[in-house]
Amino acid sequence: MTTSTTSSVPLPPQPALAPAPVSTTPQPAAQRFRGRIRGIDLARGLAILGMIWAHVKPIIYEPGTVSYILSEIPSGRSSALFAFLAGISLAILSGRNVTYTGEQLRHAQLRIVGRAVILLAFAAFLSIFPTVIAVILGFYAAWFILAVPFLHWSPKKLGIAAGVVALIGPQIINGFHYLSYTFDIFLSGGVNAYLYEVLLTGMYPGLAYMAYVFAGMAIGRLDLNSTAVRLRMLTAGLAISVVGYGSGYLAAIFMPFEPLPIDDIDAFSLLPKEPTIGPWDFFSIEPHANTTPEVLGNLGFALIVLALCLWLTPLAKNVFFPIAAVGSMSLTAYVGHAFGLYFKEDWFMSMSPTPFLIVAGAALAFCTVWALLPLRRGPLEWVTYVFSQWFARPTLPRP
């Protein structure tokens, strides 16, 4: 048996592989969206007019009729839309789609705190002239402060935060109400009550309304000029409103509200003698119920209104210019109408549409004329801007 051997021939050395070329061309940075979007002004103008209607609407419609249902649309939803648009304003102030960082973010945060301070001043002014309406400005200031730590969050995180608040916040509010009545705590008034008033017990509690603010901040980070974004907003708004209002409607069918017997109600305060909490406290979609179904329904409504107003942006420069003018100086319009109602308390829940026509007409006329002047801001908007810029001014180091 023969064994053959094959001599090994060394292979020539292989050239080393050259490293892949690395591009030294810097990637283009995302461009920050700029320019005023008149569609937002239009939506804000509708929110102001809706609040005016809610305050002086005539009580002449028969409950259950189409006229009555239509007349109730602004109630509760206008303030929710106002809070939602406040969130968009916060997104704009903090950089829109490219969030500020470092010193720019710090400056934006201080400007927002400055705006909150001046809003409290305006709220204090209106408190000197009390009216029957629940002034929203003090709550608005609290929302601004509460939002400051979240200004750098992404749209996704802000959207999740809105959902969490909408689902959990109303339950905390209900639990707080029950505990406060059961154990007679947290019922003191005055300035010491401000914190839990703006978070839990007020007309516009933060644990419900911050859902609108967070959602607005998330939307404000998007390209609102994009047709695709508007379609998604409209679709999401329809879906969320159906879930919210639909669940409340079904609850009304299967868990109808049962009024308390007259003997269980205190004759002086008109409140229950004993603390009660039932299913209806968690599912009501009545205005300012601040339940999860109402918050979701109102949030969907706000998304729908904004999407439609964005599509009507071209008309905001002519056909709807007066409404957009009110929205561009909403603080002036709100304070003006609240101050005016001090002198006309009988206009609240009147039997005639005349008060609404007068108040809304005055707001539309004044804001339209002012907007035609070569000025960039409304009267109170100018005060707010100057104060917030002063509040956020650079501080010099001490010698």
UniProtKB/TrEMBL annotation:
<feature type="transmembrane region" description="Helical">
    <location>
        <begin position="80"/>
        <end position="98"/>
    </location>
</feature>
<feature type="transmembrane region" description="Helical">
    <location>
        <begin position="42"/>
        <end position="60"/>
    </location>
</feature>
<feature type="transmembrane region" description="Helical">
    <location>
        <begin position="231"/>
        <end position="254"/>
    </location>
</feature>
<feature type="transmembrane region" description="Helical">
    <location>
        <begin position="295"/>
        <end position="312"/>
    </location>
</feature>
<dbReference type="InterPro" id="IPR052529">
    <property type="entry name" value="Bact_Transport_Assoc"/>
</dbReference>
<dbReference type="InterPro" id="IPR007349">
    <property type="entry name" value="DUF418"/>
</dbReference>
<feature type="transmembrane region" description="Helical">
    <location>
        <begin position="319"/>
        <end position="343"/>
    </location>
</feature>
<feature type="transmembrane region" description="Helical">
    <location>
        <begin position="199"/>
        <end position="219"/>
    </location>
</feature>
<keyword id="KW-0472">Membrane</keyword>
<feature type="transmembrane region" description="Helical">
    <location>
        <begin position="355"/>
        <end position="373"/>
    </location>
</feature>
<feature type="transmembrane region" description="Helical">
    <location>
        <begin position="158"/>
        <end position="179"/>
    </location>
</feature>
<dbReference type="Pfam" id="PF07786">
    <property type="entry name" value="HGSNAT_cat"/>
</dbReference>
<feature type="transmembrane region" description="Helical">
    <location>
        <begin position="110"/>
        <end position="126"/>
    </location>
</feature>
<feature type="region of interest" description="Disordered">
    <location>
        <begin position="1"/>
        <end position="28"/>
    </location>
</feature>
<feature type="domain" description="DUF418">
    <location>
        <begin position="295"/>
        <end position="384"/>
    </location>
</feature>
<keyword id="KW-1133">Transmembrane helix</keyword>
<protein>
    <submittedName>
        <fullName>DUF1624 domain-containing protein</fullName>
    </submittedName>
</protein>
<feature type="transmembrane region" description="Helical">
    <location>
        <begin position="132"/>
        <end position="151"/>
    </location>
</feature>
<keyword id="KW-0812">Transmembrane</keyword>
<feature type="domain" description="Heparan-alpha-glucosaminide N-acetyltransferase catalytic">
    <location>
        <begin position="36"/>
        <end position="232"/>
    </location>
</feature>
<dbReference type="Pfam" id="PF04235">
    <property type="entry name" value="DUF418"/>
</dbReference>
<dbReference type="InterPro" id="IPR012429">
    <property type="entry name" value="HGSNAT_cat"/>
</dbReference>
